[in-house]
Structures
1.
Amino acid sequence: MTNKSTNSTGQVHHLRRMAVVWVIASIIGDILFSIFVAPHVPPGRLTETAAKDQTDFNILFEMALPVLFGVWIYLSYALYFWGDKRNSDVAFSGDAARSNMKTQVSWMVITSVTVLFLAGFGTWALVVDHGSGGGQGPNPAFTPSGSLKAETAALLGKATWSPGSKNILPVQVIGQQWKFTYRYPTFGGFESSQLYLPADTTIAFNVTSLDVIHSFWAYQLGVKADANPQVNDVAFTTTKDPGSFIVRCSELCGIWHGAMYNNGAVLSQSAFENWATTTEAANAANTALLPAFAWTYVPDANGAAGGYYPDGTLTPYSPSEVYGSKQPS
Amino acid sequence: MTISDERSTEVSGPVSGHPHNTRKLSWTQRPGLLSQNLLTAIVFGVIGYLIGHWFGNYLASGYSYIANSGQNSIANTLALAFGVVGWLGGIGALNYPFAKLFGVDGLEEESPVDNWSKYFRYSLDHKIVGLQYVVGVLLFMFTGGLLAMAIRTELLNPTTHIFSPDVYIKIVSEHGTIMMMMATSIIVGPLGNYFVPLMIGARRMAFPRIEALSFWIFTAGYMVIFSALPYGGFPTGWTGYAPLQTQAGPGMVSYLLGFAVIGLGMILAGFNQAVTIINYRAPGMTWSRVPVFVWSILATAALLTLATPVLFAGGLFGLLDKTVQTAFYVDEHGGSSYLWQNLFWFFGHPEVYIMALPGFGIAGELLPVFCRRPLFAYKVSAAGMIGVALLSFFVWQHHLFQSGINPDMRPLFMLTTELISIPTGFIYLVGMGTLYRAKIRFELPMLFVLALFFNFLIGGVTGVFLSDVPVNVTVHGGFFVLSHFHYTIMGGLLFAFMAGLYYWLPKMTGKMMNKKIGKVHFWLMFVFFNLTFFPMFIIGLLGQPRRVFTYATNLQGLNDFSSISAFILGFSFLVFFFNLVYSMWIKPEVAPANPWESLGLEWQTATPVPSYNFERIPVIMTEPYRYSEEGAPAFADFGPKDAPDSPTHTMA
Ligand code: HEM
Ligand SMILES: [Cu+2]
Ligand SMILES: [Cu+2]
């Protein structure tokens, strides 16, 4: 039933051929990819988050390519050489065909190691390196240093930012059907439908919604955070050079979801300050009519939300380290 | 399990499956007009609908919130629910339980109606139910496909619109929901019901009434989800997120109730399959002799029974929110929209494996037949499917990485999600190992299986990209993920379904599918599937969100390319339907008894399969798939050959 000798020699023969082709193809493929494609992979390099997300994508791709090539080369080889017309060998059967411990164990070891490496790498990138620009909810796991201070100051109306100050700039993103607006607590809490950001600055996006779930996707910034009513979903990014970007809603929010987009720009620090102070002044009359700046604006079961929370300025949705004890009773 | 003593009577005893006694015929089986069939089901369904609607209005018309809205969700819900009950009663699915309830015993339900009309009746024969499912599934796939064509037509141009945004989003939602509901049953329903008993050497499913009931619930579920269209559709996509769900119009009721109804059918079907596989295996069919397809159905059945109740409950919560103004998902009143997201995806991720495992099973089942060699690493394939099934309960929040729901848990869900690719990889080990030094026969079913391996690889690898949180930021909620899941569901499951149909239709109908037309179908479907969906990865990376009616003008080229490929892909299904009609009715070609020279049990009985399946319950003698092994014992022993119409069972 088993024909051990032809089996083992045959195996070496076939697999070695495939391995050679595979190694060459993978090396060439990865080199071509990293030269010609990798630098252009979305979301680009407008911010540090975006650049790091891009790097992660590229590393994943460079690992995926050999996997794809491996299977493709094997399949092509098999289909070409082992079709019943071409393959005149005796049919492969017996115990050797049914299982082969060496193959099985090495397959499991290789896939497990790869997968564990990927998970480890992803976790490192997410937790240690850069927080990925994703929405992290009201109590972010990854925070740039100084963010808690900046966010607290924003809520108390005491946030400051000026060119060269290196302060974190909190920006609130408010989703509603079917429009994003932006509030700048650092500049009197004015609300604008334009999103401008200063270059070389860490931004803390505080994303919330007035109605259904939206998702704030600032594509070139490498930022995506769901906008939930009653939730302050925080996402960080650090801008680099000036440039423009597009914001799209990426969570279905009703019939005009497709039309929920706008353009934004990273400006030089002075241009930004100029725009912000001018707009603050021009909007002052409107800002006075807005609800006080708060993390959320939809009342909760206790009637508490944002600035409407009984103690005036603080809300249960603030960073819990600071305000955790002030939950409504 | 070994050959058990309790079964010995069944093995050697006379056929006991079809006693012809002359008790009163049940209503479902009376000939002629005095019977229950599809027509009565429709009539009863409509009557139930009207009664429910009246009753709902009667109950609730005075409520002020209804008076102001012009809509009455209570009436809609009750109308649909009563309609479903009417439908089930009309087909006769409730006769037996009610008879029992009122102490009437001995309703005879064996089928005396033996003409074409048996396919339009409540039937306890798993082969009839299987064929009913084939037609049901194809019909609904066709409908979902038409909606897909509508989507791709709208996306031909970013600025000129065929549909209003309102109609468009409802088309997308309906397409997705119909397809997902259909896909839960596409293999378990038709091929699972038909072939599991045959492959394990049983005469029937464990619970024939539950089996029939699950089919008629499935059809009812489809009508409920269709009813969304006349109600004005629902705008939430197939994921139905609240608060949009709470805000939506009456079409939402169809979605919620539709999932509850379909969910009920899924639970019943899964339960039935699990019990059948565990208890009805022929003597000698130990767990290491169970065909891989049966393993895959068992793993799927576990998911169906354990995951679907969560969807069922979630749907009912939503219905309560919409009808009697509870606040499960309403943040302002103490509920949480995150609750729906959690419940939905706690079901939703096992659901995606409900839509993958049966495909793996078909691949594993067909490969040895067309490679003419044993399956490589049989145990690993079973372990892989069980591993996938188990792990699939621990990954659901990978759909919520950017939702802000729980940032600390992201590394965990990234890990579990990536771990799942290990047991999924087993399937590739098994597949590639089986191709090793094989004698591959490029028959139609084999082509579809090979295509599955090609497509699912792309679907799986892109899944790893999605599970990496930093990459997820860019690809979540866009066309990248859209393409990813079409690669796994359509590229995997649907190709497997086609493989299964081409492979088993000769057994089910006694007629061969035409090879030439089949090849045209395969190549069109394979090439244009890839040309339709591969560009969507790039479209997604370039920033196009899902479910939008307009997009950046620089993406029009890629979108048009995808749309035109999609039309040809749609055409390939017409080729398939043509082949079906051509091969079954226009120019039927009688199928040989065992066209693929398979060793599977299902090919060892007569065609058409007698209602009792096997003259004698076979005794399983050895492992499956011992192709081209000289001196291997026959897979099964059917006892003495002199029995009338006992099938010949030559083993290669
Ligand atoms: C001819 C074949 C098909 C084509 C051309 C097609 C095309 C599409 C397109 C373009 C969308 C996205 C619309 C959007 O989000 O902007 C979509 C959504 C979807 N499709 Fe398909 N599809 C096909 C078959 C299938 C099949 C077989 C399934 C599953 C069994 C399926 C399941 C879905 C689901 C679940 C959605 C998501 C709907 C949502 O966003 O809620 N599709 N399809
Ligand atoms: Cu939106
Ligand atoms: Cu999932």
Note: The pocket of protoporphyrin IX containing FE (ligand 1) is lined by residues B 145, 148, 151-152, 172-173, 175-176, 179-180, 183, 237-239, 482, 486, 489-490, 494, 532, 546-548, 566, 569-570 (CB under 6 Å).
2.
Amino acid sequence: MAAEDLPSEFDVVILGTGLAESVVAAACSRVGQRVLHLDRRSYYAANWASFTFNGLLTWIQEQNESQTEEVRDWSSLLEEGEELLHLSDTDSASITNLQVFCYTNEEDEEEEAESADPLNTTEEEKPEEFSHDVFIRSDFQTVTFLNQSQAAQTPGEEPEAARPHPSAAQSQSEPTRKKLSYAQLVKEGRRFNIDLVSKLLFSRGSLVDLLIKSNVSRYAEFKNVTRILTYRHGNMEQVPCSRADVFASRQLLVVEKRKLMRFLNSCMEETEEQQAYNGRPYLDFLRDQQLGDNLQHFLLHSIAMVTEDTPTEEGLASTRHFLRCLGRYGNTPFLFPVYGLGEIPQCFCRMCAVFGGTYCLRHSVHCLIVDRDTNRCRAVIDSRGQRISCSHFVVEDGCVGSDRKKMATRAVLITDASVLPGESDQQVSMVTVPPAAAGGPTVKMVELCSSTMTCVPGTYLVHLTCQSTGSAHQDLSPVVTMMFRTTESEEPGNEHGRPFVLWCFYFNMADGSAVEVEGHQLPCNVYVCSGPDGSLGHEHAVKQAEFIFHKILPDEDFCPPAPNPEDIIYDGDEGAAGQEENQGEQEIYLQNHTEHNAEEEEMTPKTTKEKDKNQSRPQTHRNTRSMQH
Amino acid sequence: MAIRELKVCLLGDTGVGKSSIVCRFVQDHFDHNISPTIGASFLTKTVPSGHELHKFLIWDTAGQERFHSLAPMYYRGSAAAVIVYDITKLDSFQTLKKWVKELKEHGPEDIVVAIAGNKNDLGDIREVPMKEAKEFAESIEAIFIETSARNAVNVEELFQKISKQIPPLENPEVESNDSFKLTRQPSSTARRCC
Ligand SMILES: Cc1cc2nc3c(=O)[nH]c(=O)nc-3n(C[C@H](O)[C@H](O)[C@H](O)COP(=O)(O)OP(=O)(O)OC[C@H]3O[C@@H](n4cnc5c(N)ncnc54)[C@H](O)[C@@H]3O)c2cc1C
Ligand SMILES: Nc1nc2c(ncn2[C@@H]2O[C@H](COP(=O)(O)OP(=O)(O)O)[C@@H](O)[C@H]2O)c(=O)[nH]1
Ligand SMILES: [Mg+2]
């Protein structure tokens, strides 16, 4: 890396590029604060990151490596009345119980005529047919093995030739479908974007609101979750959400349809009848509505997405939120970002950078310099031993040794077919799997198709999440074997319809909602952001970011809209370029155009100084223009 | 005429003149004190190309290249990338390969690549021979051009060359990509809920 030093003075220094940190960074930079945003990792988004397949293999390997922390003496950098507060460099406790399983063939099976892949034709021996070895890669050595096969790939080789035929998906219900080999997964690795967290955006949730409000939305594109499924009695069923769905549903009886419509319409308003159930389980309330088992199941698990003992008022609030989110962008309440959730923190980071924020990955903070009298952090010492002064310091929880009270359980699967094949092979599905036994955790599953740009055509990326009770593998492998096929599956006769798992990995991740943030003996201008929480939405991180922002800057607006590209008017002195920079900084003024045509980019000079006022005015009609579809 | 939006991202070391090239192209303006940190979300300029209008959405690095911290999202969906070096700085030419590699890793597979040797108004202190740069560009099948953002040399031409290399639009209906940007107004096609 270039030996360039960072500037030594900032208003806000932020360590960690998770969602909350990135939103704080964007918000502060947007209102003119000088922001330094660091991450010790080589990638953005911390535990919110998404990785290519190969990037994920590297990440897995890194999780198994113990990092040694060198302790150095920085006291020479201290001034009068200051003391040092050391930060922890590693974040080992946030990811545990990592296990990797590969169920597909190591190498390609015999190639069919359609694929003219030069790599495969040069292969000397073909592997034994259908030797479905199970590679259990839960320890360090096997992970190393994975990376050797990765290194064997010719660098820069175009994965073009081996790209699975889009038509492969059409034959997916046939048992003879051809599986992608492990070598192909590696070769196509860059076309995967595998998220560490599995969340969705509620179409009227706080993250969507924030993206729109701030104009950060222009950096990302989204897909609708196209259907809501639930797993019941060994079957995958579609949950009707919209009026059209209800009427089109083949599983519902006519009476059920009427009841469901009536219920959904009536529950939008609070009634005395509902209030009578306050404090009692939502399940009781639903039972008393005489809805029947089917509808009760849909309402509790898929619409409210609560548990059997959730109180009625909470269950109703969740139900209403779900219903309010319907129809804004699509048929379900949820959105998913193209290229994965890891894009979102990066978008906020870009907004921060656009307004002057400084970015430096692979760079950390060793310790804080605290003023003894005021208990304020005056400066930080970075990983190069440079003293950087700041007025505020924001840090991810892993660096301050927070307690992990609760863990989330995760599994990520690459499969070869959808859990519910339909007319289109490009469905994005949200699946709720109710507890197998009473009191067990509900599993939330998101199945992504290749048009979300998170996996290659012919494969699906399946994210499973639940609250942890044991290790991730203990919690989720029963669900995986129930809904999918692996080489370990028994009863070969019974499993044709189920998708085959090519590769999967399990891990536990600290649940950010349970991290003890308050009560640390931290300086008063140090703020801790927690990692991803276990809930489906993003409310926790957005709320936390806004809270921290207002603590730092009580009187400032949180993420006002950034100007639209077409509104940035360069105040050029025509014909005399570079004349006006006596003021040290050249100036840009913003203007709201009212007319939009091809000529609008011909910038006209303008000299009003109403910069701030213009910036914060929302330009609704323009946003409509950015709609691509 | 149909307007086609094309994202173009700029790459190259800090100080080679990326922001200046964008500024020259979009606003026909040059300023020596251009702030190194304040890049745009993206700027736009529309140019005719055959039977189409190409509306370039030009993404500048926003300074994230300074400490080698460009985010993968920066490259997403780019139709073209301009990798800029400074003809008076051999270093900036030597890091071209690193940027090409980075682009191969994170950029779309079918991206049009252009290499721009900027500051060619400073020929007397040139450190990078044009021939060498041109050969390198040919070796990776990239467009090559030397520019001067300062004197407005070849900046328009750079983007014209890119325009020409952009493959004509296949039937847009065929590739029904239903991803969208979030807007204040809900999409009018969305179905009503219960
Ligand atoms: C090639 C190119 C060059 C560009 N060059 C510049 C450039 O040099 N400067 C530029 O601003 N944009 C530039 N832009 C546009 C741009 O990068 C952003 O879109 C733009 O900075 C956001 O506009 P803004 O002026 O509202 O930013 P602001 O948020 O206003 O920030 C601009 C700077 O001005 C300061 N500032 C903001 N408001 C005030 C105020 N009321 N009084 C005093 N200082 C204030 C801020 O602290 C900040 O340092 C350029 C774009 C391109 C493509
Ligand atoms: N002489 C000359 N200087 C240039 C040219 N283009 C940019 N510069 C100067 O080079 C410096 C860096 O330019 P900038 O656009 O900020 O580079 P960036 O970091 O790549 O965005 C500025 O001082 C510019 O004025 C050019 O074509 N000729
Ligand atoms: Mg620049």
Note: Chain B has five helices and six strands.
